[in-house]
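Cross-posting from the modeling subforum.

Setting up a comparison between two proteins and wanted a second pair of eyes on the formatting. Protein 1 (sequence, then structure tokens):
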Amino acid sequence: MEKGLIAIAAALAVMTGMVTGIGEASVARQAVESIGKNPDAADKIRSMAILGAAISETCAIYGMLVAFLIIFVLGA
């Protein structure tokens, strides 16, 4: 029973990576759409999109770290 709960907790922690991927795809879609509407602002839009993707990627990395901690510390 305990191992099943640990697996569920780790799966929930890993889901942050899935949600982050969806968010980053949304950012990329909006950036491409914005550059299409206003090509003069492409440099600013691109830099903000990359910064936003980098910040949101840290959420996925933290989720993976928490999943590893749950599996190897609580699972042992």
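Protein 2 (same layout):
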Amino acid sequence: MKKSLMLIGLLVMNTLLYAQQKPPIVVGFYNLENYYDTINDPNVNDDEFTPDGANAYTPAVFIKKVDNLASVVSIMGVEQNPEGLAFLGVAEIENLDVLKTLCNHPKLRARGWKVVHFDGPDERGVDCGLLYNPKMFKVMSASSLTVPVEVGDRPTRDVLYVVGKLNDDVVHVFVNHWPSRRGGESATREKRKIAAGVSKKVIDSLMKIDPLTKVIVMGDLNDDPINASVTQVLGTKWKTNEVKPGGMFNPWTAFYKRGLGTMAYQDTWGLFDQILISYGYLKSSSPGLHYKEAIVFNRPFMIEKFGQYKGYPKRSYSNGVWNDGYSDHYPTILILNQ
């Protein structure tokens, strides 16, 4: 009897130890900054990113751009989980082929990443996408949601909506790239509020059914965490104890209030690249994954060391000249405990 009890005790202890040792799940977002191929597509305005275009975007430059992006993406999340990211939302990508090229890069190929992408209506041909590790994330459905706003006479980028299983959690992921501030923040403010409403409409319908539904809204929002599109339309809170069932939490507000950001303009930091999560990730008694930490991911090699943009993210091009950089945005990651 004593031996049986001891064996049971050891099994329980080993089970608990195993649970404690399970690495967290890491998800991320990255604006890949004009990640085009070199082919002139007559259906979109991509002329400047062609070999004969203003940026002299040759195959050699493209190959270096891919290698630079892979250098960043391949190390995102590996400090927390040896497999790296479970999925990565991306913006400013031209098509499915450039995403497949990135996933097939030698620094990423062994992970077997898959891609979700739809061609959208943006005049420049840039869309959002989702790269994912099928060992950790299983896609159940995907769709492209139209944003009912035009920038000038041009439609803006769609929202990528993906439903999948992250471990055993069903999660609803919205990848966004909202209208820019070109023309001024106040003049374009309503466009971003409309864009935020696209995800919000779906989220509200989900939360009516189950206020613990797990939702992740990510993207280059072209707004900071304190702007109305985020705080009013999406209704985010930045203190966990203020988030109610069905509500959304924004961990980046605290970063922003400390002067930290993901991109810089005229020597002022902005935090446009955000990942927002729903109440279900905060409630400790709910099953599955739970929020642990948010990180603006940057490393010394990703920082510009010289010139006009010293101290900024090291961009691909500087004043029309190839800068051998990565992106003019830093990526962001969220860590979720199993």
